[in-house]
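tool=predict chain=A
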Amino acid sequence: MTMDSPLFPQFGRNFMRHHAGSIIRDPRYAITELVANAWDAGATVVQVAWPEARGDIVVSDNGSGMTEQEFLSRWNVLNYNRLETQGNTVEFPPGSSGNKHRRAFGRNGIGRHAVFCFAATYTVVTTKNGVRTTALVQPDEEQPFKIQILSKEPSDGHGTIIQCVPGDCSGLRETEVVKLLGSKFIYEPTFQIHVNDTPVSFETLNGDVPTFTVQTPHGMVEVYRFDAEGGRTSDQSGVAWWVNDRLVGKRSWDIGDGALLDARTGIGKRLVYVVKANFLVDDVKADWSGFAASTRYLEVENCVADELRRDIHQFLTLTRRDRKRGVIARNRDTLKKLPPLAQAHVARFIEDVQRESPTISERDLANVVTVLANLELANTGYSLIERLSTLSPEDLDSLDEILAEWSVGDAKLVLNELGRRLRLIEKLQNIIDDPRADELHDLQPLFERGLWIFGPQFESLSFTSNRSLTTVVRRLLAKRHNVDETRLMTPRRRPDFVVLPTSSVGVYTADGFGRDHEVDEIGHVMVVELKRGGFAITDDEVNQAQAYARELRRAGVPGDTPITCYVLGSNVNADSQDEVTMGAARVIPRAYRVVLQQAHQRTFNLQKKLAALVPIEVDEDMRELLDDNLFDQASRL
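tool=predict ok
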């Protein structure tokens, strides 16, 4: 190859499987696409030879067929664009009796590759303009496939025949093929399908198609509901009116006072209703493009619309649980973090939304539930918890008095918050003794979210990080350790923490209020120093915490303002276990496990008492899908 030689793209071995997707992987999609090609060609009759064991698969139609040039320009072009070259309406062969309002299925030309689902080599015989062209499509070493024109000869008629010798990939019985094709195409009476000489009709689908009658003031109407689980386009779903076995106008969900379904939604694309009302023959427009707006037709239409709404509601009721379970599975990781009451709330929400908005897609419903789950995850019941947490164990027996002032809904919010707190305590318990735990990135942020761990007096949301007082502590420590102050800072991440080689320090304050109930400087200062896992608290750490308090006083914290300094480590030396009091300041050395055990006991007892008054509801779908063992079992079914 020279420098000027052109380079051509190479195709990987599995290119066609990725290009055509399910069409060449799933025989249900494949056979449907082959029949859809006949539909798009303006056929009125399609014959499908479907072997139960061995034999050829043959799909033949009486459509327009193709000339050699048309065949090559369509079959040999990847991503052939039908809309640009042929439009979205079907072209019928001369003399055809097909419905001239038929819309094409095809869009991007992938459907013709469906034969590859059954065999790597196949033949196409297509007739048009008095010429029958026979072509062979087979694998190629460098291209996805190659086409060879085998013959061209004079012939009458029109249509296309596709034939292949399948392997063992079909996996479908004749009865399944009949049902599948019926659900997709039977709503158009001018399109007849035969599978092994068996016509796809209402009779052959008897028992597989939900059928009901509607009594109207002018006669009885028969209604058939077809559910194509693979979906259709929005142009191929809706209500199809039949009069004397002929389609009137186009299928549409606009009937009665408005649209029964949104044709763009998943359920709107799946369903087609065939309404047979022969007695309306005199109300059909001359060109069969629709009905005249006669009083008789309008009365019949309203009666049918009411029954279709009832049937859609019933149909959706049967599918709601499957959609609910799908939505839960998609949000499983977030929902597992919620307490049972919040999970039950989400489960009821899913059911309510589906009931009020039956056409909402599963994807949109899942997105809404994602937002709700995250809101539930962030939801708090601080005000009631703050009041409850100040009660002694004996006072907890008097919860009835508090609940008289708070609704059951408030109590449920509190239970949710208590559940979150227990999980936070559990998370801390898993890392406090780990020497590798990073105080800045692991411990300090978690304790900042849970100052309530230290007791009811720190329950208020008004305790927040105080950067100015943190700077005071940072300067003190920099001077004591003879280092540059900037070395104890992490301005990009958490400038409100002081970082030392073996610990981190956070300073938090709550506002104080004067007699006029206005904010009056600082009401309480809290210092939290966290040591790495495995670190023992000694007198040195206690003395250093005392220094924090003295330095904060010098910085302007009034002498009567409480300062509480907690110093936490894996354990506390025996001679350093006592608290140290300096006026309104206290230094409290504690082992992590002691603080967390006390917080857990306090929170758990409160949760237990409150839960006894507010029984926790359990949603079975939520329980099954969020339980790891049950979810694994369900996933294997």
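Confidence is low (pLDDT under 50) at residues 380-391, 393-399. The CA atoms of residues 46 and 193 lie 5 Å apart.
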